[in-house]
Every structure is written in C-alpha cells, then in structure tokens.
Design brief:
Strand order of the largest sheet: 1-2-3-4-5
Number of strands: 5
Order of helices and strands: HEEEEEHH
Radius of gyration: 13 Å
Number of domains: 1
Distance between the termini: 29 Å
Helix content: 25-40%
Largest sheet: 5 strands, antiparallel
Structural class: alpha+beta
C-alpha cells in the first residue's frame, strides 16, 4: 500500500462504518484508488469472496472521484466528485442499491 493512501483508507473505513447502510464494507487500496465492497457467498459451497461495489479515486489532495463496478467487471466513472465525506454521502443516498446487503 502506498504510504500516502494509508490515512485516506482509514478515513474511508471510519466513514463507512459510521453509517448503518455501509457498515461492514471492506476497504482495500489499489494504486490511487480506494475500493469498497462486501464479502458475498459464491458457488455451491458458499465460500465468501470480495464483491467490489464502489471506487474512490484520489484526484488531488482531499478530492475524490467516484466510480461504480459494472456487471461486466469494468469500472464506470460517475459525475460525482468531492471530499471523502461528500462522496460517501453520495454513495449512501444515490447509490444505496449498490452497497446494501443482498
């Protein structure tokens, strides 16, 4: 993990855990991206695997862009940008269906 992404990852985890809708989501770092998702059962044995849902891309300082994972596995940028707090608020309001437990 890039050292400069350690604090943003901790902040994102704190913000997600503070909301009932997003509590329990994992956060992982991939380059300049913070990826949040859930562990979901897959296959006949129900083994838990990562299911990435949303991606926060650090654009500059405390400015983040928000992307969503498509059914094709590719990331699609959204028009939403803002601070970490603002982008988490967007996820909790506009994108509830993407982060809710199935």
């Amino acid at each position: 993990m890039k050292e400069r992404m350690r604090n943003p990852a901790t902040e994102l985890r704190r913000l997600l855990d503070a909301n009932e809708l997003t509590a329990g989501m994992y956060v992982r770092v991939h380059g300049d991206h913070l990826i949040a998702g859930r562990k979901e059962p897959v296959g006949v044995d129900g083994a838990l695997e990562d299911d990435d849902r949303v991606r926060f891309t650090q654009l500059a300082g405390n400015l983040y862009g928000l992307s969503v994972k498509r059914h094709t596995g590719r990331w699609e940028k959204t028009p939403f940008t803002g601070s970490m707090t603002e982008t988490v608020e967007v996820v909790c309001s506009v994108m509830q269906h993407l982060v809710a437990l199935y």
